[in-house]
Design brief:
Elements: H1 3-17, E1 23-27, H2 29-38, H3 41-45, E2 49-54, E3 64-73, H4 77-88, E4 92-99, H5 105-114, E5 120-125, E6 131-134, E7 137-139, E8 146-148, E9 161-163, H6 165-181, E10 187-190, H7 195-210, E11 223-229, H8 244-251, E12 254-255, E13 258-260, E14 273-275, H9 282-287, H10 292-314, H11 319-355, H12 358-370, H13 374-385, H14 392-406, H15 414-424, H16 428-441, H17 454-468, H18 481-490, E15 501-502, E16 512-518, H19 523-535, E17 541-546, H20 552-563, H21 570-576
Parallel strand pairs: 1-2, 1-3, 3-4, 4-5, 7-17, 10-11, 11-16, 16-17
Antiparallel strand pairs: 6-7, 8-9, 10-15, 12-13, 13-14
Helix pairs in contact: 1-2, 4-5, 6-7, 10-11, 12-13, 12-14, 13-14, 14-15, 14-16, 16-20
Length: 579
């Protein structure tokens, strides 16, 4: 199960099916991102694709009948309408049309009627309707998928959040596409205390039944789709990160494998936006899961190697030297770009770590997530809040973690810590988000999967002592809940009342698992899945996906959007969580 390979294979097949000759690739906004995630521009040029055009660009280009057009589009009503207009007045010689998901027969009929000049040679469905971030990780780029319900009695509701309808539709389409591209017809389990998870599971089951001819695969492996809700683990997205990929996303933000560095003073033009892709950057692929200390050492080794090669490049004294220089120059230039890019990224990470006093803050975060020492932790948080070197954002996150961790502790002082933040001068709009986070983490049924239930506290303590044996870095103690959930599933120990099954019961042993987290995933969870795939004693392959990929800032925005209309005032919540 390799989703980058799956999407890349589709694109390769498109380019090859159209035969030899110059081609244009016609895409929409979404498929442009989908293609760019797995194919570099230089790679696609090798497939004789010399022009890239957007369907919604307004058709400003002159007709180019000598070009073949490969159209790769999402099967939306807007795209069908735009493509119909294109076919009525075609700019290109012939058209090979591929849709990234299932398209309605009525839409195919509409396109056929518009193809009066008979320029269409092919219409197919190639299921790549998602962003393949790494071989085991995908995203749908939906930043906020839930909305609060307007109800007068919160206790009467099974789940106060519901899907934003268009995002539910898009999520069903995205997961369906993943299943089709991997040729999986899975059993489905979902988090029982989430109405959103149950609704998504039912909608996907509807598609599997309606389109059963598409899912008629001869599968030897038993596959499972496990649908989880971000609210089951609101802790993980709030933690500072210390592995390279996750750290870059937390401090600089990765958007479709791109990182914007234009804010750095004196940064050169070619480094204002850099691409971090494990497919096209060997150094990044080898080091994306290393921690902060290790990445510094490997960067030094890369620079030393680069300097050695640079000296050898300067030594051109004979015809043989010249020949060697010409042959190795492309690799040398590529290495030069790699060194420049990662030095810029790592230097900025180092600056931000020092500037924001993140070492002290992160140690406190890890203690809150992994240990149960209420009194000592409360005192330390008060000290951190009083430290002017710590930003308001980090101080607020510590209080959020404390509140989630100890909201039912008899001696908690959530109110006192929020007062300390206000006394420090933290604006009310920032302290109010603490209440939103509490409400977001409180939306689950307390009997199942609560991060602060007695059962969960025991698990956290056991996990901490187990992980201490192999932990060299105090900043990476935390293990996300999804890893433990998957380990239980793999061993056949996942409770059916907590994670019920839709339909028939599968065999005990599951080989292929697709996990989807409503409300977004994190790169820390991606690392956990990577480790599980490579270290599990039971043969298993796991794919992780989510509505989006969060850092702490985007997660807090998701929380705010989801909870802002819930019928509970901050003052009432203040009374609920007071000592």
């Amino acid at each position: 199960m390799n989703i980058i390979f799956a999407v890349k294979s589709y694109i390769t097949k498109m380019a090859e099916e159209s035969g030899p000759g110059m081609k244009v690739l016609l895409m929409d906004k979404q498929t442009t991102s989908i293609v760019s995630m797995v194919y570099s521009q230089s790679e696609i040029l090798q497939k004789e694709v010399y022009l890239f055009e957007r369907l919604d660009s307004g058709g400003k280009l002159e007709p180019m009948k000598h070009l073949k057009c490969i159209a790769y589009l999402r099967p939306t009503k807007e795209n069908v309408a735009l493509l119909s207009n294109e076919l009525r007045n075609p700019k290109y010689g012939v058209y090979y049309i591929y849709f990234s998901n299932i398209i309605a027969k009525a839409d195919i009929k509409t396109l056929a009627e518009c193809d009066e000049l008979e320029v269409v040679r092919e219409v197919q469905e190639f299921y790549g309707d998602y962003l393949a971030v790494s071989p085991h990780l995908f995203s749908l780029n939906i930043p906020s998928c839930a909305e609060g319900k307007y109800v007068t009695n919160l206790r009467s509701q099974t789940d106060p959040l519901s899907w934003i309808p268009e995002h539910l539709t898009r999520t069903v389409q995205g997961i369906t596409s993943v299943l089709l591209s991997l040729k999986k017809n899975p059993f489905i389990r979902y988090q029982n205390n989430s109405g959103m998870a149950k609704r998504l599971a039912e909608k996907i089951r509807e598609v599997l039944s309606k389109e059963e001819h598409l899912f008629d695969f001869r599968q030897q492996e038993v596959s499972m789709l496990l649908i989880l809700d971000r609210r089951g683990d609101p802790i993980t997205p709030l933690l500072s990160q210390w592995t390279y990929q996750a750290m870059v996303h937390e401090l600089l933000t990765i958007t479709n494998n791109r990182v914007n560095l234009s804010h750095i003073p004196g940064i050169s033009k070619e480094l204002q936006e850099v691409v971090l892709s494990s497919e096209h950057d060997e150094f990044y692929a080898d080091n994306m899961y290393l921690n902060y200390g290790e990445i510094g050492q490997t960067m030094k080794e890369l620079m030393d190697e680069f300097q050695r090669k640079a000296k050898s490049q300067q030594k051109v004294e004979s015809i043989a030297d010249m020949k060697n220089f010409v042959e190795t120059y492309p690799q040398f230039k590529k290495m030069s770009g790699t060194v420049s890019k990662h030095v810029a990224v790592i230097s900025e990470l180092s600056t931000l770590v020092t500037k924001r006093n993140l070492l002290e803050v992160s140690e406190m975060e890890q203690e809150l997530a992994c240990q149960d020492q209420h009194s000592a932790q409360l005192q330390r948080i008060r000290q951190v809040i009083g430290n002017s070197k710590v930003r308001d954002e980090e101080a607020c996150k510590l209080v959020m973690l404390y509140a989630l961790r100890y909201k039912r502790h008899s001696n908690n002082d959530i109110t006192g810590l929020i007062y300390a933040l206000k006394k420090r001068g933290v604006p009310e709009n920032k302290t109010n988000i603490i209440y939103n986070v509490l409400e977001y983490g409180n939306l689950q049924d307390q009997s199942v999967g609560d991060i602060v239930s007695q059962e969960a506290v025991v698990k956290i303590t056991k996990r901490f002592f187990k992980d201490l044996k192999g932990v060299e870095n105090v900043y990476t103690q935390h293990v996300p809940l999804v890893k433990e959930t998957l380990e239980d599933l793999i061993k056949g120990k996942l409770r059916e009342n907590a994670y019920p099954l839709l339909g028939m019961c599968p065999p005990k042993r599951v080989q292929d698992i697709i996990v989807f987290i409503i409300g977004g995933v994190t790169y820390e969870e991606s690392l956990a899945i990577h480790q599980l795939n490579h270290t599990s004693t039971i043969p298993v392959r796991v794919i992780l996906g989510g509505t989006t990929i969060h850092n702490s800032q985007t997660f807090l925005q998701e929380v705010l959007n989801a909870t802002q209309h819930l019928p509970i005032s901050h003052s009432r919540m203040n009374r609920n969580y007071r000592n």
